[in-house]
Design goal:
Number of domains: 1
Helix content: 25-40%
CATH class: Alpha Beta
Radius of gyration: 17 Å
Shape: globular
CATH architecture: Alpha-Beta Complex
Number of strands: 14
Distance between the termini: 23 Å
CATH superfamily: Spore Coat Polysaccharide Biosynthesis Protein SpsA, Chain A
Number of helices: 6
CATH topology: Spore Coat Polysaccharide Biosynthesis Protein SpsA, Chain A
Order of helices and strands: EEEHEHEHEEHEEEEEHEEH
Strand order of the largest sheet: 5-4-1-6-12-8-13
Largest sheet: 7 strands, mixed
Length: 237
Amino acid sequence: MIKTAMVLAAGRGVRMRHLTTDCPKPLVQIRGKTFLDIILDKLNTYGISNVVINTCYKGDMIKQALIHRQSPRVLFSEEETALETGGGVKKALSLLRPMGDHGFFVINADALWQERSSSLLSQLEKLWNPRHMDILLALVPKKQAFGDAMDGNYFLEDGIPRRQRPGEKNIPYFFIGVQIIHPRIFHQTPTGPFSLRDLYDSAERAGRLRALIYDGDWFHVGTPAAVQEAELLLKDI
């Protein structure tokens, strides 16, 4: 089993407006639990024992909020300036290895999902095959996306995910911010900030990007109104 995960928690969350003026987005609460605790609880339940969290905006608040947490074991990768998603994971690779040499989960700190059948993490790991994949993305159909989700960002063509191109509309699937990544995909990547989307595109071109179509619900909580909607609809927290 994969025992290692990284939670991306360095972002500012500017669309949250007043909710993130004095609080980093990962510490925004749904029914009295922070986004970050919801994610860490899911990881702990699945059996993930080692989690790396990257921090930048109000990172000391995040560290303080987790100071008494016993499991999973948490390590912090601190960024003086935000390195974006790809740069953040690359900086943390020394903390993720050797535990994640087979691959590790990478999860956005605001990735909130509600399961209908088996665990999302279990479904991903069952499909994961590092001989044929560098990245495995969790996607949901539009009908299972709630909150401030607008249009999707991936198509499936012969079972293979393809990211939307400029001008394309009616895109059927959303990437929900949960994935498995093999560390080799970071070879020859730039130093400094860059997006994980660049790596998705590289893996897609190489034929090494795959996707799981998740059977649960996903809540995109990028605005205060979406937080309120998640409060009403989310049951599994």
